[in-house]
Automatic annotation (TrEMBL):
GO CC aspect terms: cytoplasm; nucleus
InterPro entries recorded: 3'-5'_exonuclease_dom, 3-5_Exonuclease_domain, RNaseH-like_sf, RNaseH_sf
KW Glycoprotein (keyword) present: no
GO MF term set: 3'-5' exonuclease activity; nucleic acid binding
Keyword entries, A-Z: Hydrolase, Nuclease
Protein name: 3'-5' exonuclease domain-containing protein
Region span, Disordered: 264-284
Keyword Transport: no
Organism of derivation: Dipteronia dyeriana
Domain 3'-5' exonuclease: 35-217
Biased composition (Polar residues): 264-281
Amino acid sequence: MTVTIFDHKLSSSTHNIYDVNFFGVCIRTLVTNCPSMVESWISEIKLIHRQKLGRLIVGLDIEHHPNFNYKNEHPVATLQLCVGHRCLIFQVIHAPDIPQCLEDFLLNDKYSFVGVRVDEDAEKLKNDYNLSVGNAIDLRTLAAEQVDVLGMNMKELKQAGLKGLSERVLGKKLEKPKKIQLSNWDNRKLSSHQVQYACLDAFVSFEIARTLEKNPASFMSSSQPRSFILKTHSSTIMKKKATKMTEDISDHVTIHHVNYQSGGSMKSQNWSTGSGSNRATGGSRKDYHCTYCDMDGHYIEGCFFIHGFPPWHRFHGKDVKQKGKKTTAH
């Protein structure tokens, strides 16, 4: 199957973890109504992508109970954010409050919040929760720069939805069942189908923008309004990205030791850095590999400096695989 979902079934009333697999790509998804979990997710995103915070792309989408009567509009039920292979589904309708860090995150105009008709989503967030999005960018505007390559005319592009753009840009079919789209998003417990639907809307939005960004020519046009294009389009930035990629490839990190307790909480030893390796002091020598950090094919830089993890990242012992030898990551 091209799309699957795995429910971790955490014993928590405030959050759960799902792994959504989309054509071989695993998106770890946090579903929560808890402000502190949102804070943890944002903190981890900033840590993982700390060298990209000036040009961060964020897939954004919302879901709400269907509005069958224009006089009785339902508020946003879930806010979905996706960066890389990490997705947040914040059940804002059930949250006791909205954390300040989320307000600041959305308002940061250095971040590009992308989606189809994302300006409408931003307007609804503002109307329902007074949440402002600093830099909302419609994917169709980005795609317009490559309309000939995509084999679409401007009329087709203007009418395109996320499903159509996914097929044109990614070459991947995104299923958007009406039954799920029109389901009750106000439910405190979302179904796996709803989680998958919500996650993929945000992830595919992110992935389309990331794919379009690979072609710098599509971001060079000065004729487009500044607010409609990603803000880091210069050839200098592209050269820096290429240099950084080379540095990342050559940067080897060796992880020696991570302790975990049988209850699932994780704690660290004291770490020190030297000559491309990290050494743990104290305790017996064991070699463990954090599957969460390795999900994208590389380790989170500095991850081993912050064990234990943020609360939503604390899984059961089975999520930490023991290695017989030292684990070296790129």
